[in-house]
Design a protein that fits this description.
This protein is 43% helix and 16% strand. It is of the alpha/beta class and 306 residues long.
Length: 306
Amino acid sequence: MPQSTAWKRWLSLRAYGLVTSTLFRPTTPPEKMRARFEHFGAASTAALRRKFPQLVFESHAMGPLAMESVRAVESPRCAMIHLHGGAFVMGSTRSYRNRAMRLSYHCNAEVFVPEYRLAPEHPYPAALDDALAAWRYVRALRRNLPILLTGDSAGGGLGLSALVRLRDLGGGIPCGAIFLSPWTDLTMSGASIDANRRKDLWLTRRHLECWARHYLAGADARTPLVSPVFADLSALPPLLLLAGENEILLDDALRIGETATRAGTSARVLVGKGMQHDWPLTLPWLDESRSAWTEMRRFISKEVPQ
């Protein structure tokens, strides 16, 4: 690796760790985390259009559930429903506009981001119910486009739970799914939570324990639709999972890949060498992120019908 690239990588990762660990501590109240997440991540549609005039945004409403879509390409190959991260307690369409725009551009997709309800005001299963409502809406709206389900962090685990529920309900399922650094085990039983505790620059076991309590509100963390690592993963669409080598949630992705494969579901796990949580979305300028986007495009090319 060229020295300049190595320095850029080192500085980017350390800056990421410093910002996240300072702003989003385990005991930071959810309302304060939301405000900070919005302050640093929110982008207006007008500002993005001034920079990228080709962008097309649309607002959608499914009763009380709002959703926003973005097209960064003229003729999308597919539609994506992206379930945002944020530990089930923060995140919104506004704070995910930049990330949704990148997904649309890199994956040649129209990307829909639902404003699913957040904990602790709306604990499990509110977010899952909203994810299913988003699927039904997009499926009816884009009948002629293949639909993929994507998500990152808590949204990745939520997306996997949604796939399991859709399979059980029958009547249709996405043609594939991509999950980045998914949080799939709210019992925190993955070995990497302790093995990577000195390598993860942000997350700790205490973070996960505090955030899980907000989402669970007394529900059993071993419930398969809460922690899909314990679910039957058979008869699901092909999965691509990405996880950073140094993040504590590494095993949450690895175990899903192993369990899905044993159940007969096509699953591949891409581990980002030396990478942290959610790196393709949070650090898009790194070479490792560009490589991840390439693998995501390959997955879509393989799984999405022409």
